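Hey, can you fold this one?
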Amino acid sequence: MANFNFKKLSLVNPCNLDDECYTRAMHAGKIIDEAKVFSSFEKSIENIDFLVATSSIESSNDKRHLRNAVDLKDFSEKIFETEGKIGLVFGREDIGLLNEEIAACDMMIRIPTTEEYLSLNLSHAVCIVLYSLYITNKVESGRREIDKLEKEKLYKFFSQILDEINYPDHKRENTEVMFKRLMGRSIPSKWEYHTLMGVFSKTLNKMKKQK
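Sure. Predicted structure:
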């Protein structure tokens, strides 16, 4: 983290941060000192506007949206257009992130590796992702991205539309995740958000009037 100018570390139920930890950190002990420790994943993400999951396992099926991954290079180029607090979520050394933790994120990225050996050590994965972000030049843009509250309103409207059309329950969760992933990949601007919300609002009103 210190190598690539990242300073804010959050840990969920970590091991004991003992002397060995500081020894391995060398001159980056300040990051450990200032790290925030949480008792649950849910608490750790409460104040994050845009969550990015990492996993070595992705889906090759477009109908299974939970693990549809964005290429690391594409992610590194687009994420700087996003405003608000961005959280990079790395899983456990042995089993990575759980499905429900990935589902809570707006986007999933995967580091390209050989099919013969997909997974990376946690420290190596963190290093590669931070390096990719560090070397990517931030493109100045006049775009203003939507925040966490606006995203939640957008997802709620989409859910209400599914209610109005009596969308099948057995397909619903997967479809809602698909929409979340779609919005995560596109990183809509404020103008795009308000346009979508206008369309959704008029659609819902017309549906309700026709009942």
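The first helix runs from residue 19 to 25. Let me know if you want another pass with a different chain boundary.
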